[in-house]
What does this fold into?
Amino acid sequence: MANVLPAGHFARDTASAAPRAQSRRWGGYLALGLLQLTAAGIAARDLSGSPAALPAVAAMMTVAGAAEVAHALASADRAQWPARLAGGLALTLAGVLMLTDPSLAALQHTLALGVLATLAGGCRLAAAWPLRHRRGESWLVVSALASMDAGILMLALWPAAPLGLLGAIIGADLAVRGAGFIAFAQVRRGQAEARARRSIPH
It folds into this structure.
């Protein structure tokens, strides 16, 4: 004899699954933000331009970019993930470039770093701008604009940008980027908790 479950069983399962999915979404943004703030902290430890400090910054940039790529691929928003994926790839390539030349001795490497930073911000802006009127999305717009500004500043200072100044620009970019993701995650968290409360039967 086939087991027959009450119809309410499926409704309860659906209601309980939705908050878990929302939690995973804001949790991913929170993890991204914390990772990038950590990278910014490493960059801020030594702004004197010492080449010995830049490999750690480059490694954190690479990890942060790879995390953005993974988060974009796991995103349920198929309309936005290509731009977010491109932004993460650009940040990853910028980190790899710095790992191959920590002192940025080659002028073309410094130029490429500025181009990649501008591209990363532009791609993230393209993903966030259409949704800017949604609650919390403005934080992603602000962080994307900051990334673009960082890249444009690198290009404006090329080819005479001091190494320490480049480190400061990269650190500031990562800090604003991370803060934007964390702020967005907090908004999403509040929305998820509100949905969870509404789904609890009274």
